[in-house]
Amino acid sequence: MTDLNPQAKQMADESMVRNLDAQARAIWPQEAPLIRRYALPSDARILDAGCGTGEIASRLAELFPQSHVLGIDIVDHHLDLARARYEGLAARLTFEHQSVFELSACDCSFDLTVCRHVLHSIPHPDRVIAGLVRVTRPGGYLHLIPEDYGMLHFQRGALDPRDFWHQVAASFGEATGTDLFMGRNIFGILAAMRLENLSVDYVVVDTVRVPRETFAAILEAWRDGYSESIGQLTPITRESAVAYFNQMIANVRDPHGYAVWMVPVVSAQVPLAKSE
Ligand SMILES: C[S@@+](CC[C@H](N)C(=O)[O-])C[C@H]1O[C@@H](n2cnc3c(N)ncnc32)[C@H](O)[C@@H]1O
Asked: What is the pLDDT along the chain (276 residues), one digit of tens a residue?
């Protein structure tokens, strides 16, 4: 049977809490204007599927002050942290233990369904997307961040980071039954589902737009959370993975260095007449 949560250990690790904090600080300033584009009712019902520590569910609740936001995840520690951190928003922001593979919401429950940094980490993303479409109302929106590990670029040093990402993305994905190139592959999945108004935008996490320390914090968290499994699942050893990450972190911290992570933000609208 396929492991539906092949990154369970990494997702629950303390490094993921740091990572989600840094990623939100890096990405949200460019992402919020993309979310404001949607024609949402003022009292929008919003689902954040795979919400982690609630970084974005809370930002959504703040962005839409009359909305109701539900964050779901399967890591109880993340959910507890989210409930504690955003207690002040509890009247409109709730967190539930629920899998994206078994959404309990009724059909057409949400005006906006968000799923960030999840679809590349699980098998059968098409099944999950079908569930997200089911719970979104006709005319409502999907807002997705499907990561793509061919969209990270660093300067060459003693090591060439191109070799690292090339090896890791292919081997890690194969070993875990996941697609680490979801960013480019999701368009076809959404188009085949006959969703409408598909758009692909990019948040540019680079050393010009994002503080170097924030970008470095993402890489440090990846190093701390993933080097061991990279050593187990890919031809790159744990020690080598650490060396690659350390070089990339130095590249980002170098005041004359340049590096970029292109983060695809993909959106689609559920047709007014949903087809079977
Ligand atoms: C990289 S984090 C992203 C968190 C959040 N979306 C954000 O952008 O800050 C991925 C999250 O997906 C969750 N996840 C993985 N598989 C899941 C599943 N089957 N159902 C619900 N959440 C899941 C993990 O527990 C983790 O918290």
From this structure: 568 788 777 878 888 999 999 999 999 999 999 999 998 999 999 999 999 999 999 999 999 999 999 999 999 999 999 999 999 999 999 999 999 999 999 999 999 999 999 999 999 999 999 999 999 999 999 999 999 999 999 999 999 999 999 999 999 999 999 999 999 999 999 999 999 999 999 999 999 999 999 999 999 999 999 999 999 999 999 999 999 999 999 999 999 999 999 999 999 999 997 655
Report the alpha-carbon distance of residue 52 to residue 268 in Å, rounded.
23
Give the closest residue (by CA) to ligand 1 atom 16: 5
Query: Would you say 219 and 252 are in contact if contact means Cβ atoms under 8 Å apart?
Result: yes
Cβ 15 under 6 angstroms from ligand 1: no
List the one residue out of 227, 217, 4, 205 whose CA is nearest residue 121.
4
Cβ(129) – ligand 1 distance below 6 Å: no
The residue whose CA is least distant from atom 8 of ligand 1 is 116
The bridge status of strand 110-116 relative to strand 45-49 is parallel
